[in-house]
Amino acid sequence: MRSLSIALTSAAFAVALAFSGAGVASAQTAGATAAAPPPVTAEDRVLGRADAPVTVIEYASFVCDHCAAWHNEIFPQFKARFIDTGKVKLVFRNLPTEPADAAFAAAAVARCAAPERYFDVASSFFSGQSALFAGQGRKWFNDAVAVSGRTQAEIAACFDRPETQARLTADVAGATAAGARSTPTFFVNGRKAADQSLQTLTAAIEAAQ
Description:
Layout: H1 10-27, E1 45-47, E2 54-60, H2 65-83, E3 88-94, H3 100-112, H4 118-127, H5 129-133, H6 137-146, H7 152-159, H8 162-178, E4 185-188, E5 191-192, H9 198-208
Helix pairs in contact: 1-3, 1-7, 1-8, 2-4, 3-4, 3-8, 4-6
């Protein structure tokens, strides 16, 4: 995994690697009783109008191929139909999957980006995901940092902040409590969608309005 580094400080990157193992373990040991996802707060990364009548929470991983497929193929239609029209606000939360080291490091990069650039970073990770699995992890990270609104030094410093790790831990804990056991998983106004298809999400959104 060292070859995937974006020239972060060694200490900061080691924190990401150590943190990733604990996070994945908790995500894989979800309890039997599911609750609604945690309420949306100012700490969340949200796309869409704050007063949108329907809230869609997505739990996803930047290294998940199904997540990349959704964002690359379905998200443009979803955004045009629901977000751009003010019907939905989309909340993105991280549920990192294997390879855990890359997933948590990417989640931290996105978290450390300028808030208004979060979804630009997400788009970069998803659209360029094939580079990671083709052995071009450095490019995958560097391309994301390039659209983050932060320098590599600022991203590296952010890795070390307790609040960065706390936010990612909270995402995983919330996903686990809500019964999100795979990625991507969507909740529409607190109710888990049966799958990630546009048809299913459309039906759930229309029912929630």
